[in-house]
Specification:
The protein has helices at about 1-20, 70-80, 95-100, 110-115, 145-150, 185-195, 240-250, 265-270, 280-285, 290-295, 305-315, 330-345, 390-405, 420-425, 430-435, 445-450, 470-480, 485-495, and strands at about 25-30, 45, 55-60, 65, 85, 120-125, 130-135, 160-170, 170-180, 200-210, 210-220, 260-265, 320-330, 350-355, 375-385, 410. The protein is α+β, with helices and mostly antiparallel strands. The protein folds into two domains: about 1-170 and about 315-465, Uridine Diphospho-n-acetylenolpyruvylglucosamine Reductase, domain 3; about 170-275, Alpha-Beta Plaits, CATH 3.30.70. The strands form three sheets. It has an eight-stranded antiparallel beta sheet with strand order 12-9-11-10-14-15-13-16, sandwiched between helices. Strands 3, 4, 5, 6, 7 and 8 form a six-stranded antiparallel beta sheet that branches. It has a two-stranded parallel ribbon with strand order 1-2. Its EC number is 1.3.1.72.
Length: about 500
């Protein structure tokens, strides 16, 4: 803890300096899974990238104290060595503990525990004036700050330590594949599985309106007898979504559901290779055949860390329709049909999420309109229209549809709300009062972090910015296929060979 405390003192000193000089600043983590562009400047950041250690365990209480930049794969490796696992493990290994808490994160155990922030018991936080405090949902003095920090994207202070709840680990997940022929059948299967206390994990993939699979996982120390465990982390392994589709095709007429054993870590990060199915979009962009041989040859580029690097450096993240949208079960089928009509993007990811708790224990990300019903997170990942204003309109139409259906979007991605629309969803009065109370005005507000230039699509006059000849030429060059993509891959290749920083401006 000595090194941790020394680092926190340095962070607090720099925050105090920014506060005393009224200098706006941002937090730099050293990594990201957000699709938003980085707006950080080196002389106006609080660098917490070295806070990346698991500090201590309480095995009796099943607790662990973790610095915010510990990624999921390192966390699982360390906790499993103590016979424990996080209650929720985000499916992409480079998502960090701090990112999961300050962002909006969930996974296939969220039907039981809710969002990732519900597994955090307390946080150490550097306030905007440099003071260091502990905030907890059990402390009447700080519970307002604790719950508001959850999902507010690091805009209320600098989190430096998190206390997390754990569960007993086991060596395998026994996964059952249940074929479904409609979105409503998917929901019915998920609802039934939620009532089974032996179920530890559940999610689903819809490949079309009439074809999909729900996967139900149970932790176990005993693999299925006579069947080799399936893995998803080696070059020769299948991508999970393709494997699940193959199982669906082979067994959809069988009377008994197909089951297999998967080593626990391989299950938890089953979507890493191919980043769900986003890797398919890369093959499409480069007009490359998509088959077992090309996936094998290009495997080093198909992991989350490398793909997010390439996406940011190419600039193509601004064209990605990458959204997680949580819809109440009662409205989910309507939303899935709407998604098909407007985008034609398949597959879709389905993940049940336990909804809001008591009003005074709601994380910021739950907003004001979410009730107590189970939510279905619907993951939509693909490329949107190339015309920027059409792209903005499509995203705004989806945001309006989500609001109409009493749902909520995750703020890791771009948001296309006007400021008035944004604060109809989230509790502005409570949020701004906490920013004042805890001296957080030097940090960007959450709306400032997630907003984009709407280019007049939401009304009002749109004034096109004038360009120099040089700016026009650069825009034309990078807008010509495939220069941006090639540059992103080249930068990612460099990142594979040498440690590199693709987030901070030089």
């Amino acid at each position: 803890m000595e090194q941790h405390n020394a680092t926190v003192r340095q962070i607090a000193s720099k925050v105090r300096h920014f506060h005393d000089t009224n200098t706006p600043f941002r937090i730099y983590h050293g990594s990201t899974l957000s699709t938003r562009d980085s707006a950080r400047e080196r002389d106006k950041i609080i660098d917490i990238s070295t806070l990346s250690h698991v500090l201590r365990f309480d095995e009796e209480k099943k607790r662990v104290w973790v610095e915010p930049n510990v990624p999921m794969d390192a966390l699982v490796t360390t906790t499993k060595a103590h016979g424990l696992l996080p209650q929720i493990v985000m499916e992409l290994p480079n998502i960090t503990v701090g990112g999961g808490f300050a962002g909006t994160s969930g996974e296939s155990s969220s039907f039981r525990y809710g969002l990732f922030d519900r597994t955090i018991k307390s946080v150490e936080i550097v306030l905007g004036d440099g003071d260091v405090i502990k905030a907890s949902g059990d402390d009447p003095e700080t519970k307002d700050l604790f719950f508001a920090c959850a999902g507010s994207c690091g805009t209320l202070g600098v989190i430096t330590l998190l206390e997390m709840e754990l569960i007993d680990a086991k060596d395998y997940v026994e996964l059952t594949y249940i074929p479904v022929s409609s979105s409503q059948e998917s929901i019915d299967v998920l609802k039934e599985a939620e009532q089974d206390p032996t179920v530890d994990y559940m999610d689903g993939i819809l490949y079309s309106l009439d074809s999909g699979v729900i996967t139900i996982g149970r932790l176990t120390d005993t693999p299925i007898s006579g069947k080799k465990p399936q893995t998803f982390d080696k070059r020769t392994d299948p991508w999970f979504y393709l494997h699940a589709e193959d199982v669906l095709k082979r067994t959809k007429n069988d009377k008994i559901a197909y089951k297999e054993s998967i080593p626990t870590a391989s299950y938890l990060f089953r979507y890493d290779r191919g980043v769900f199915w986003s890797g398919l979009r890369a093959f499409t962009y480069f007009m490359t055949p998509f088959n077992r041989i090309t996936r094998y040859l290009l495997d080093p580029y198909m992991y989350t860390r490398t793909m997010i690097h390439a996406l940011h450096r190419s600039g193509l993240s601004s064209q990605g329709f990458i959204q997680d949208l949580a819809i109440p079960y009662t409205n989910a089928e309507e939303f899935i049909r709407y998604t098909d009509e407007r985008t034609g993007l398949w597959p879709l990811w389905l993940c049940p999420v336990k909804a809001a708790t008591a009003p005074n224990e709601r994380s910021f990300s739950k907003g004001k309109i979410i009730g107590e019903d189970m939510l279905l997170d619907i993951g939509i990942w693909g490329m949107g229209p190339q015309d920027r204003r059409q792209f903005i309109k499509l995203n705004r139409d989806f945001e309006a549809k989500v609001a109409e259906l009493k749902g909520l979007k995750c703020l890791y991605a771009h948001a296309y709300y006007t400021e008035d629309e944004f604060w109809r969803i989230y509790d502005e009065e409570r949020y701004l009062s906490l920013r004042r109370k805890y001296h957080a005005e030097s940090l960007p507000s959450i709306y400032d972090k997630v907003k984009v230039d709407l280019q007049g699509v939401a009304g009002g006059e749109y004034v096109r910015k004038s360009e120099t000849w040089g700016e026009w030429a650069r825009r034309g060059f990078w807008g010509t296929w495939p220069f941006a993509g090639v540059y992103g891959v080249a930068s990612a290749t460099k990142g594979l060979l040498f440690p590199s920083d693709f987030l901070l401006k030089r």
